[in-house]
Structures are given as structure tokens and as C-alpha cells.
């Protein structure tokens, strides 16, 4: 259909246009996508077998939808991506405040205009990008905001009585007729405002200051809610929940691979940063494991959740830590070190809600413990497991390394070491080379020094070495050697 040549209702009828509800639009276009193997919700990872099939079933059922999940689970993004299932353009009556369909007008303005001009009534074409409206539910939202109110200025200008329905000023929902309308954090909406949505969802009429208007609005509602809200701040009133067709539960990534894909897609990095800093594969896994540890931590409020944004901003901070170090030492390129994870801490402390025990320990302590726990969890997947109890005279793969520390006075890695100094210091510990050659023979040569540091951190987590953090860097020691030498 050549929309540039269709400017009136008469021309629209000649072109064979048929009115279609927004829910049918979404349904028909989804059916086309499924038949043609087109991915509707591209860029959404980890939901392929859980959330997305449920969302597609809800669209096929023409349901209004409630996306229920913790923060940072792509609820709003899913809602915004539904716009891609709308027809590219739809016709509306020119001058209509509520996007009247030219063939099935519902507002008084559109009905009177069509009665007056007939097939010569002018129309406009509305692009799908303009058919998305969003409102964050806050306690100060009023019925006037979302549904409408009487406008005394309009009444005065038009010299109309308050008994005339032309004095009504439409709120956000009527103005989003034939659009996708999203209400974020629905439980935060006051109960009396939620009640005002009943008729719009089910019967299709609205009431404004005594005016009962039969406005069969054509809407696709999507609500988002956080389970925490049900107990802490408010709830969704039962009759409203009853009118929402499908409630879909979202979730966090199930695997590190999925989490890594999301972080790589969402992190906003400067091109120069990418060229300057190389990130070892283990560093990427370790960063994601921190979020997994946080979601299981006794110090973190599980009900509040740990957003995927923590990994994204943490990745950005990790690269910035390495970049700043390279700039200070005058180097063009550098590799992320495990000690650079100290720069990730501000991304953690601002993203986790602590329980009482966590507050007592302090945010920095919790962040450090999450990093260390992530090292401890990943260590057995790269190197032999360190047993707590070892039989007398039983050899372990780490004996030579522990002996190296026992015979020495300690080992220091300063944060501001340039790359050459950093590598030469780690090269002093010869047993590290044997461990990597034996258990990681196919490792990328650029990853070797990160894994050397990883081994030291891992042994300290299993109490085979002691690790001390001070303002200038890290010190590793044999946990008993210093005590014996003191004796």
C-alpha cells in the first residue's frame, strides 16, 4: 500500500484497507515471524526456552501481560521490543487526540468530523515507533494523569458548559489508543489508581469527573512488577490481577556463558579502550561468577536481586582500571590483571542490597569476599581441586609451589607495576610455569600471567597461602613459614 498517495478516508477505502485491532496486529505479525523463522526478540539471551515462548503464547492469545521478576531481568526491554511486531504504519484521523481509526472512530471529535466531511476527511499515517507509551508507577500518579480530567481552560476558551464532554482533557492511556502502553513497577501504583484501570482492561469504558464515556480503547497493556514490591511497598489488587491475561516470570542468566554474552552486548566501551586492553577469558568468567556468588551470598538480600547491570558496569570498570594503569606507566597496550578487580568494587557496592549481617561487615568487605569466593568457585574447573585434608606424606600438585613460598620471605605484586615488571615478578615463581604447562597446555599465551595470579589467589582461598592487601598492592606468603621463622 503506497501510503504517500492515501490522504483521505475515501482513498483509504479504495485501497482496500481493513481495520485491525492492535492485539491482532501483534498476533498476525508474530505468526509470520514464526513461520519464516524470524527471531522476534533478538538480543535477549537466556530466555529462549523459558520467557520468550511464554511471551509469544500470550501474544497469540491476545492477552494483556504482566512481566514479574527482579531488577535487571530485561522486562522493560522485552516490552519495548514488542513494537517490532506492529504494522509499520497505521492511518489515524487528522487532529484526533486519541489516534482514532478512520473506519471505526470512537471520539466525539472524529465522529463529528467524519459526519461533516465524509470520504474527504483527512488522515495521517502513524509509524510504529510512535505507538509506544510508558509510565513509571510512582505514588504521586493520579487518575487525571493516566485517564483524564475536566479542563476548565478548554471550557472557558470554547465557551462550553462543564456538562459538555468536549471539556475533557484525555490522560496518557486514552492518548495511547492503538498503542502499546507499559506501566512499570505496577505495585507502586496506589490501589485507587489501580481500580481506575478495571473498566479500561475489561469493559472498554472510562469515567472522568462524572462523565461515563463509552470509549472502547484498543490497547495492548504490558505491566512490569518486582516480587519484592508485594511485601515492601505495595501490591497488585486482586481484581486487577484477574483482568491481566498472562503473568510471565523472568529470571537471571542460568550460565556464565549466557551472562558473558549479555555483558559483551551491553557494555559501553570506548574503541580506544578495546584496542588498548586485552581481557583474558578467565577474567570474563570470573567477573560473571561474582554476580552468581552475590545471588547466593548470606550478606546480600536475595529478595532484592542482583541486577545484570552489576556485571556490565563491573566489566566497564575492569577495563578502565587496566587502561588507567597503562596510561600512568606510558604503555600503549596492557592485559587485565586479577589485581585490577579492585576497580570493580564500586560497581558491586552500589548494586547489592545488604542484609543486617552484611551492613555490619561493611559494603567493601562484602564486595571483596564476593571476588574471593568467585575465585574459589572457579578454581577447581581450571586446576586440580585442593583438598582440605591430605594424608601424611601424600603428594599434591601444589607442593613445589608451596615449598617455594616456604623457603622465601614473601612475594609482592604492586598495583602500579608496568607490564614488564609485572611479568618478570611472576616469572620468578617457577612452579607456576609447571602447573600451567601441565593443566592448561592449550592456554592463549596472553592469558598466562592472569592465570599465574589466579593460582596464587586460589591457594590463598584454600588456606595454602596467605594474601594481604595493602594500599600499594598485594603480598603473598606461606601461612606458616613466617611464624616458624619467627620462632
Q: Rg, please?
A: 31 Å
Strand content: 5-15%
Strand order of the largest sheet: 4-7-10-1-11
CATH architecture of the largest domain: 3-Layer(aba) Sandwich
Number of strands: 16
| Assigned CATH class of the largest domain | Alpha Beta
CATH topology of the largest domain: Rossmann fold
CATH superfamily of the largest domain: P-loop containing nucleotide triphosphate hydrolases
Oligomer: single chain
- The unreliable regions are none
Whole-number total of structural domains:
2
**Helical content class:** 40-55%
Write up this protein:
The chain is an alpha/beta fold. It is built from 24 helices and 16 strands. The chain has helices at residues 9-14, 22-35, 51-60, 75-81, 108-117, 143-146, 152-158, 172-175, 191-195, 198-202, 229-232, 238-243, 256-266, 271-276, 281-294, 309-329, 345-349, 356-361, 363-382, 399-407, 419-427, 430-439, 448-461, 481-486; strands spanning 65-68, 89-93, 123-127, 132-136, 148-150, 168-170, 180-184, 206-208, 211-213, 220-225, 246-249, 277-278, 334-335, 411-414, 466-470, 473-477. The longest helix has 21 residues, at 309-329. The chain is elongated, with a radius of gyration of 31 Å. The chain starts with 8 loop residues before the first helix and ends with a helix. The mean pLDDT is 89.
